[in-house]
Design goal:
It is built from ten helices and eleven strands. The chain is α/β, with parallel strands linked by helices. Strand 2, helix 1 and strand 3 form a beta-alpha-beta unit.
Length: 329
């Protein structure tokens, strides 16, 4: 007799950090394949990062992304660049891009290291998604700029992307205890793997890089004590050929949309997973996405990247047995 599958209906997931690669890098991923991957993972909305080609730093690119998302009846919340072409020190026109449909601003792909320019961005009072590479150092001075913006009478909004280090968690925890209204995210790979997993190819290569067991534990602690508000995937696909190159020659980034829910659910349980992947992203972004999804919480499944909807079929999660399966009707 076939075992009956218990189905639970839950709020759909929102991913605050993905790279759909279009325009410019469609051989890695397209908006269409990215949406298919997101849907399979239980997401009904995603924030796409601006390191496209051309860069998402003007209304034309924002509108084109939204047009393609609408065609597939899916919610994309475009994140525009903070500075023109990402690599300049000239701020974009925040109001113009917001009017076109940008939900937030980030220089993801290239960190913004000029303190004065960063302060001016915070003074826009738009949501800034900060991409840090020298992670703890940049988190520390950016919090100081946040305080300065407050002192100047502004209402800055700051969210730190893909936090991966213990020291960064500690700095953010202290800032929150001081009453600063900042938020942050991590990604499943930072509470699943460590630098001990890194091999000869690029399968485990990402930015920020995987760190120590101590850092991994700190990320988990930060999730449980709510220092870390959000689990985002940082879904960053490349071609299979690129990811399978020797480690130093392979680009940073892994696919994450189709495995994220199960990885979070196994660590945190349902309530905490929904807090990090459904409720908090909606609150931080200020969106009213009421879509629901179905999950089989007791079902186990084996990760087979060949079955991914993403163009990238290389994954560090290959052959892992996970619990909690998204049901796609």
């Amino acid at each position: 007799m076939k075992k009956e599958i218990k189905i639970t209906t839950i709020p759909s997931l929102i991913d605050m950090h993905v790279h759909f690669r279009e325009p410019g890098f469609e051989y890695k991923e397209t908006i269409e394949t990215g949406i298919k991957s997101a849907r399979k993972g239980g997401f009904s909305g995603v924030c796409t990062m601006p390191n496209t080609n051309p860069v998402t730093d003007n209304p034309k690119v924002v509108k084109e992304i939204l047009k393609k998302a609408k065609k597939h009846k899916f919610e994309i919340y475009p994140v525009a660049a903070i500075t023109k072409n990402l690599d300049s020190l000239e701020l974009v026109d925040f109001k113009e891009l917001k009017k076109a449909g940008a939900i937030a601003f980030s220089n993801d792909g290239l960190p913004l290291l000029d303190k004065d320019v960063f302060l001016e961005a915070l003074k826009s009072e738009e949501l800034i998604l900060s991409h840090c590479e020298d992670e703890t150092k940049e988190v520390t001075w950016q919090i100081e700029m946040f305080k300065k913006a407050l002192e100047l009478g502004f209402k800055p909004r700051l969210h730190f992307c893909h936090i991966s280090k213990k020291d960064s968690v500690d700095v953010i925890r202290t800032a929150k205890k001081q009453g600063l209204n900042i938020t942050c995210e991590t990604a499943p790979h930072y509470f699943t793997f460590t630098n001990e997993n890194i091999g000869l190819d690029g399968v485990y290569k990402m930015n920020p890089p995987l760190a120590s067991e101590m850092d991994k534990k700190a990320i988990m602690d930060g999730l449980f004590d709510n220092t870390i508000d959000v689990i985002a995937t940082d879904h960053a696909p490349h071609s299979d050929e690129e990811k399978l190159r020797p480690h130093m020659a392979s680009p940073n980034g892994i696919t994450g949309l189709e495995t994220a829910f199960s990885l979070a659910y196994e660590l945190l349980g349902l309530d905490k997973t929904l807090e990090k992947m459904a409720y908090n992203p909606r609150r931080i972004l200020g969106i009213n996405n009421k879509k629901m999804i179905k999950v089989a919480l007791d079902e186990t499944w084996i990760v087979d990247p060949k079955l991914f909807e993403s163009k990238c079929k290389v994954s560090p999660y290959k052959a892992m047995k996970l619990k909690g399966r998204i049901i796609n009707d």
